[in-house]
Amino acid sequence: MTHPIIFDTDPGVDDAQAIAIALRHPEIELLGMTTTYGNVDVATATHNALLLAELAGRDIPVAQGAAAPLVKPRHPAPAHIHGANGLGNIALPEVMGKADPRSAAQFIVDTVNARPGEVTLVAVGPVGNLAAALQLDPSITERVKRVVIMGGSIREGGNVTPVAEANMFNDPDAAARALTAGWPLILVGLDVTHRCVLTPEHMARIEAGQGELGRVLADSYAFYRDFYREALGIDGCCPHDSCALAWLLRPELFTTARGHLGVATSGEAEGQTLFAPEGRAFIEPRWSQSPLVDVCLGVDGAAVSDWIADVLA
Ligand code: RIB
Ligand code: CA
Question: Is the pTM higher than 0.70?
């Protein structure tokens, strides 16, 4: 089976690895990429998406989107993790292509409506483009096949605050809309991405298999790896965004639960995802009033990491 997808992204080192999978995997039909600020500013995100497609020899529409959160001020991009250029500060070739003239939100709406019931939205950055698409045409919830969001944390705790994951924290107001829109949604969060480690051995195989694209992935990985060594004490990196595609193509490697999701939009818990399992009664019904969604809780991390390397090797 082939999956037609739109990949919404803020590349970003781990985004770049996932983009390479989306560009190369024979069971993915990459209809386009939409970009957002997050790991970098949105112009850099668009540049990197165009570049990665060109390095893979693919002509893929790239539509630029959100430059800032819906409500809160934008935090500075995490240049210490992804580099100021999003790809580990390595020298990059010139980009020849241009972005699609449409906004990311318009691109999403047009593409989903053109193929009702077929298109999966895979979002691996702050989800402002999803919120904007919902604003533009709320009825896309009935025509999108599925929405896969890399973000949030059910039991794992946060990576940018004690409780919040970066993509949710960067735009909690957009996340609150996207997670409760009533479309078929799965959240692939830190509970699983922190169980996956892309090792230097994996990356050596990827570099050997991907030509010039492999060099960019490997050199940017070297920068990203320093952060993981210092922050988590591991030799390798968590391939967060590739996990969203791993779930799409190899769901049997994950365990999931069904329930209701919410996001704290302000205060100390800003960006925290709140999960109320289906059927569980709490002291008040308010945590169980959003539409039912699925969340990932467990994963065979070694198998997912090997899968990523196998796809790209
Ligand atoms: O928390 C992980 C997410 O935030 C990933 O999408 C990664 O690219 C970072 O920005
Ligand atoms: Ca990302």
Answer: yes
